[in-house]
Amino acid sequence: MRSTNDLRVKASCSLVFSPDSRQLISGNDRTCLQIWDIATGIDRKHLKPKA
């Protein structure tokens, strides 16, 4: 099991698993979304709001 430090999530406000449980989507206090690969712990996509 990986700790949140390994996944580089600093302040997560929301977490949700994808329907197939292969990805985890996290939303943090900076209004960013990150899509994580559960098997590898790699941040697959980092989405920031447009300014």
Q: How many β strands by DSSP?
A: 4
Number of helices: 0
Structural domain tally = 1
Distance N terminus to C terminus? Answer: 36 Å
Structural class: mainly beta
Oligomer state of the chains in this structure: single chain
Give average pLDDT, whole number.
79
Low-pLDDT runs: none
Largest sheet: 4 strands, antiparallel
- In which order are the strands of the major sheet placed? 1-2-3-4
Radius of gyration: 11 Å
Strand content range? 35-45%
Silhouette: globular
* Percentage of residues in helical conformation: under 10%
- How are helices and strands ordered from N to C? EEEE
Question: What's the short version?
Answer:
The protein is mostly beta strands. 0% of the residues lie in helices and 43% in strands.
Description:
The protein is mainly β. It has one domain (12-47). It has strands at residues 12-17, 23-28, 33-37, 43-47. It starts with 11 loop residues before the first strand and ends with a strand.
Write the layout of secondary structure elements.
Layout: E1 12-17, E2 23-28, E3 33-37, E4 43-47
Antiparallel strand pairs: 1-2, 2-3, 3-4
Please tag this protein with its features.
51 residues, mainly beta, 4-stranded antiparallel β-sheet, 4 strands, globular
